[in-house]
Design a protein that fits this description.
By secondary structure, this protein is α/β, with parallel strands linked by helices. It folds into two domains: about 230 residues, Rossmann fold (3-Layer(aba) Sandwich); about 230 residues, Rossmann fold (3-Layer(aba) Sandwich), CATH 3.40.50. About 35% of the residues lie in helices and about 25% in strands. A hairpin with a 2-residue loop joins strand 7 and strand 8. The radius of gyration is 23 Å and the shape is globular. The protein starts with a strand and ends with a helix. The model has no long low-confidence stretch (mean pLDDT about 90). Keywords: ATP-binding, Nucleotide-binding, Repeat, Transport. It comes from Dactylosporangium sucinum. Pfam families: ABC_tran (PF00005). GO terms for molecular function: ATP binding; ATP hydrolysis activity.
Length: about 475
């Protein structure tokens, strides 16, 4: 169905795709894997019509495909769900799903029919738990991702490109996504699946293309490869230890309390939450979608107000003054200013009043870019939107590290990040904890939340339902507390 022949792309004088050739048939799942910066995002933007090629051709059913714009790609039956959300947050789920194609009656929008059609789209995608009348911006990020997928399915595409669709999903929501991918394959749709979660790639894909430095270095099938081999192909070396060794023996005394939350309540989100963070420890916070984990973090940071309880700051500025930093789960929406350069994004936390010591800011930012190995080299003046997802995440971390925080809240810090960059982030967070920082790590990845932390808090329906030591605890034990009635 789809064939790429010697596809090339350059930005300025730098070629980022060096003659990519691939093919895939209908009713298959082609997985694209590679480290951040390997060229995956550029490739799918070409297929979606968002950027043009500088060489090569794309064929659909053996004929040259006109991909000169997203409109032309849509006309050919190609739809893309990007990693970064593109919903209109002030509009309802129905309005987002049906923008430009509302059912009408007597020249007016037929809202009864519109909500019914939206519910049909959600049900068909397996996301019927979402209320079509709910404002999209009030949904958790994971549910917003589901709406994006349902929107792409509204026109029954022949080729569906999914860019990190599972990055914020867990539990039954993740199961629903996997069922949908298998159902689309049964219907004859070609699914191009981009993911850093290699276990699910091996489970879902019928074919795998490994990209490195803008080239396809291997095409294979799940039965002929393994996670370790894919990592070797992506990184050019054998995988190292993923998680750092434990910083202390079980039962060792942690440092002083850096954050104490008691009885924190925000109606409809969480109730009576209490916990402590101590210097030198990494505490995991796990919960399924709707458990209240991200809402709790935002409230502690001062982005929303509790109705009762203690431990939450009055506003983010107050939290920052007290040495608390927060990396949000939506880096594009609330972590970065996409229109600004990398230098200006990292330096945001150094702005005080109207005057900026620009020389010092440049030195500090350059030091952070080098410390976190933000790529490509010399990217300080580049728009941050041009960086890969992993390097954007590093830029967000760099921004907060310039503050010199005592408490660091990380909400899905490895979302859409390749394994090599994940290892870098884990090591950096481990190093910060060894220096005395208190870290709260929120994640929907159970392996991560147990491997990178000292203890785990489990949330279910807005309450803390368990506190477990990370070492010796199984994923089943955590899930049991996350889903129990």
């Amino acid at each position: 169905m789809l064939e790429l022949r010697d596809v090339r792309k350059r930005y300025g004088g730098v070629e980022v795709l060096h003659g990519v050739s691939l093919s895939a048939s209908g009713g298959s799942v082609l997985a694209l894997v590679g480290a951040n910066g390997a060229g995956k995002s550029t490739l799918i933007r070409i297929l979606s019509g968002a950027v043009g090629m500088d060489g090569g051709e794309v064929l659909l059913d053996g004929a040259p495909a006109d991909l000169s714009s997203p409109h032309h790609a849509h006309a050919l039956g190609i739809r893309t769900v990007y990693q970064e959300l593109s919903l209109v947050p002030q509009l309802s789920v129905t309005e987002n799903l049906l923008l430009g194609r509302f059912p009408r009656r007597y020249r007016m929008i037929d809202w009864t029919a519109a909500h019914r059609r939206a519910q049909e789209l959600l049900d068909r995608a397996g996301f019927g738990m979402i209320d079509p009348r709910e404002p999209a911006g009030r949904l958790p990020v994971a549910r917003q991702q589901m709406v994006e997928i349902a929107k792409a399915l509204a026109d029954e595409p022949r080729v569906l490109i999914l860019d990190e669709p599972s990055a914020v999903l867990a539990g039954s929501d993740l199961d629903a996504l996997f069922r949908l991918v298998r159902e689309l394959r049964r219907r004859g749709v070609l699914v191009v699946y981009v993911s850093h979660r290699l276990a699910e790639v091996l489970d879902l894909a019928t074919g795998i293309a490994v990209l490195k430095d803008g080239q396809v270095v291997e095409t294979t099938e799940p039965a002929r490869t393994s996670e370790a081999e894919l990592i070797r192909l992506m990184a050019g070396r054998r995988p190292e230890r993923i998680y750092p060794p434990r910083r202390s023996s079980p039962g060792a005394s942690p440092g002083e309390v850096r954050l104490r939350v008691e009885g924190l309540t925000r109606p409809g989100e969480f109730t009576g939450v209490s916990f402590e963070l101590r210097a030198g420890e990494i505490v995991g916070l796990f919960g399924l979608v709707g458990s209240g984990r991200s809402e709790l973090a935002a409230c502690v940071f001062g982005a929303s107000r509790p109705s009762s309880g203690t431990g939450a700051y009055g506003n983010p500025a107050d939290a920052i003054r007290h040495g608390v930093a927060m990396v949000t789960e939506d880096r594009a929406g609330s972590g970065l200013v996409l229109g600004l350069a990398v230098r200006d994004n990292i330096g945001l936390t150094t702005w005080h009043g109207l005057w900026i010591d620009q020389a010092r800011q440049r030195r500090d930012v350059a030091s952070m870019i080098e410390r976190l190995d933000i790529r490509p080299p010399g990217c300080a003046a580049m728009p941050v939107a041009r960086l890969s997802g992993g390097n954007q995440q590093k830029a967000v971390l760099a921004k907060w590290l310039l503050v010199g925080p005592k408490v660091l809240i990380l909400d899905e810090p490895t979302r859409g990040v390749d394994m090599a960059t994940r290892v870098e982030i884990y090591r950096m967070v481990d190093g910060l904890a060894r220096e005395g920082l208190a870290v709260l790590l929120i994640s929907s990845d159970l392996t991560e939340v147990l491997g990178a932390t000292d203890r785990v808090l489990v949330m279910n329906q807005g309450r803390i339902t368990g506190e477990l030591p990370s070492e010796g605890t199984t994923e089943d034990q955590v899930l049991e507390r996350a889903i129990e009635a």
